[in-house]
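Dear Dr. H.,

I hope your travels went smoothly. While you were away I took the liberty of generating a structure for the chain from your last submission, since the lab meeting agenda had it listed for discussion. I wanted you to have the full record in hand beforehand rather than looking at slides cold. The sequence, exactly as received, is reproduced here:
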Amino acid sequence: MTVAATACDAPRDESEAGGASLGGAAGHGGEGGSMEQEPSPCGEIANAPAFAIGTGEVCYEALEDGDVVPQMAGPQNGYHLWVALVCADCPRDIIVVTGAKREDADEWLSDTAERVVELKSMQVAGLFAGMPGTPTDPSSFVPEGTPVRLVAEARDLDGTILHSAEKSVVVGPVELWLNQCDPNPDTCGHPGGDPCC
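The corresponding predicted structure, in token form, is as follows:
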């Protein structure tokens, strides 16, 4: 099952045909939209890779295999890991599909998430990989210290796969996500700040 959402603002294999296909047609191409991107308040990423999975609610933060990523407890009683992406050769508007799998298994830990996003300066943050669990049953969520694979796919607006990749990370402690936002367009979406409302 895929959860659809509206957009807001290395790898096991971070290659274009990488082994993490989430479905859909393979290969480059399609009419994915304009290549022109607005600058990101998060700044430019020097030597941006063709495609990379990172983390971050507001800005892209690079991840190395084995890094610890906090597990967020959201306001709707669910859990997720933040996912952010860099795509140096993607058009401005793309479809992204994200999710998480155990390190040693191919089953999804929870539903994948699919959404249309606008890249700015080749990056997007605030994506998520859903995690299982409910606050009423502490044994239902993935324990801290569990190795998992963040999986992401970028598609053009026709659904053609542009890139897919995986990143091995370790589930960190549970943190409460307050879902705060900043209504001021001059300060929101900047490093260290809240997302725009």
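Two observations you may find useful: The two ends are 28 Å apart (CA to CA). The chain has no helices and ten strands.

With kind regards,
E. W.
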